[in-house]
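Running this now, will post back.
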Amino acid sequence: MKYYLQSGDWPFNEQPYHDMMKRLGYSQGELHTSDFLLLPGGADLGARPNRDTAEIVAYQYFRVDQLPVIGICRGMQLMLYLNGAQLIEHLPDISEDLLHMTVTDHWTGESSWHLTEAGIVTNSRHHQGFMSIPQDWSVIDKTRDGIIEAVKRDNEFGVQWHPELPEMCGTSAFDWFVYQLEKTLK
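Update: finished.
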């Protein structure tokens, strides 16, 4: 199977995504010859307008043909945002009660290791996120304070965290990601 990852003139290290996909047995393809779209992490939505536009076009291309889409961090955020979900631009601004605690129960701005409700420890590094999703989507997992960490709809799947990073190799979170990925691509 081939995946498509949009590249362009924006600063972005795509190598960890290619390395992960190669380890999983997938090869990189072109837009018109790939079996699924991989929307990777990176800068906040709106921070790189050229990237936003290019990935929106790719997303729409894959959705028209009902081909699978996999989103990681920013990629999941883009998928949900394009389908009408309300992006929380800065998690600490929405509630004094919401602390988006890490596994150490300490939050310093950029989130880090979280224990999800499914019992998975993820390396979720973000300050944007979602607490609700469009009705035709399903929340697969979230943190104990309600930040959505994984979603699914038909043949679309996204995680808020970073399975592509070497620190995730051999973890139960990575194995869970691979299982969900394979289910989505069937």
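The chain has a mean pLDDT of 89. More later if anyone needs it.
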